Amino acid sequence: MPQPSPLPTARRRRLGVELRRLRERADLSATQAAALIGATQSRVSNIEAGRYGVSAERVRTIARHYDCTDEPLIETLATLTGERRRGWWEEYQDILSLRMLDLTEVEHHATALRVAHVINIPGLLQTTDHARALFGHTVPPLKPHEIEHRVSHRIKRQEILHREQPPPYTAIIHEAALRMRFGDRATIRAQLHHLNEVGELDHVTITVIPFDNGPFHTSGQGIDYFHGPVQQLDTVQLDTDHGAELIDAPAQLERYRQILDRAERAALPPAKSRDFITQLTQDL
User: Fold this and answer.
1) What is the per-residue pLDDT across 112-162, written as a single tens digit (0 to 9) for each?
2) Cα 229 to Cα 218: distance, rounded to the nearest angstrom
3) 131 and 151 in contact (C-beta within 8 Å)?
4) Range(s) of the domain holding residue 234
5) Which of 42, 195, 259, 268 has its CA 20 to 30 A from that of 12?
């Protein structure tokens, strides 16, 4: 008999969450669901916790018993099954938190990314020197080798923007983040220049919200919205003082879509945003 996985992937855990939502929507207890699909209650609980893998056909069978008729959702859930695949981020599993590894896995599989940051430059747009300066200000302080591990992980994440078929990426950055002083003048200039350079990529859109355009509601948190193959599998990551927080509740996803829509309306168009960043660079 297979043993439960002690460290399920983020995708397997998300599959379990979605199967639990389908079960609850069908108004079934775990015991009732177990009887329907020919399993034990503990097996159902372990599947929903991501500790047991299931086949694609098993997912389709479970969904049918739960009276789910959303075929695009069912087929997308089926793609989350199969053997556990190691991602490059697992090189960091003894160094970084599980939350950060989950963020990297979700980000890696996103079909599109949309972010809004008020205080910091988005991680996928940071230069090496900027990231190093940023990690040098954490509380509690990191040791030099810990800073380098986090910098290398952050820079490696950026490879998704340079893949053969990269996902569309939209970044909304507040002027406050652009003016935040991490590193010396050369580091700051290089970071601003890098933003305009990456913004020239066809699949990347970078816009700026100047102070003059007034406030918009994000509570100061960085918001990273990862689009899944279907909207039900979208994920939001919030920057918090205790690390990355991943959110996938439908009502919260809708809320953050609205916040990002509002942020986009407050931002300058891409061309004017590039001019704005260029002017900031010249003023340093």
Assistant:
1) 999 999 999 999 999 999 999 999 998 899 999 999 999 999 999 999 999
2) 25
3) yes
4) 88-283
5) 259
* Domain co-membership, 189 together with 218: yes
Residue 100 and residue 33 share a domain: no
Rounded to an integer, what distance in angstroms lies between the CA atom of residue 213 and that of residue 33? 53
The C-alpha angle 175, 181, 183, rounded to 5 degrees, equals: 140
Residue 71 shares a structural domain with residue 155: no
Q: Are 227 and 234 in contact (CB under 8 A)?
A: yes
CB neighbours of residue 278 within 10 Å: 14
**In the beta sheet, which residues pair with residue 173?**
117, 208
Structure tokens at 147: 């800073």
Structural domains counted in the chain: 2
Compute the C-alpha angle 19/23/26, nearest 5°.
140
Beta pairing class for 204-209 and 223-227: unpaired
Buried b (16+ CB within 10 A) or exposed e, 60-75: bebbebbebeeeebbe
What's the CA gap between 49 and 41, in Å, rounded?
A: 12
125 and 29 fall within a common domain:
no
Residues 6+ positions from 18 with CB-CB distance below 8 Å = 73, 77, 232, 233
Instruction: Specify the pTM.
Output: 0.92
Q: Among residues of the chain, what percentage have pLDDT more than 90?
A: 83
Q: Cα–Cα distances in Å, from 183 out to 135, 175, 258?
A: 11, 17, 34
Tell me which residue of 235, 232, 270 sits closest to 256, measured CA to CA. Answer: 235
133 and 43 in one domain?
Answer: no
Q: Which own/partner contact pairs does 219-222 have at CB distance under 8 Å and 24+ positions apart?
A: 220/118, 220/119, 221/118, 222/115, 222/116, 222/117, 222/118, 222/119, 222/120, 222/122
- The helix (run of H) or strand (run of E) holding residue 203 is none
| C-beta neighbour count of 21 within 10 angstroms | 17
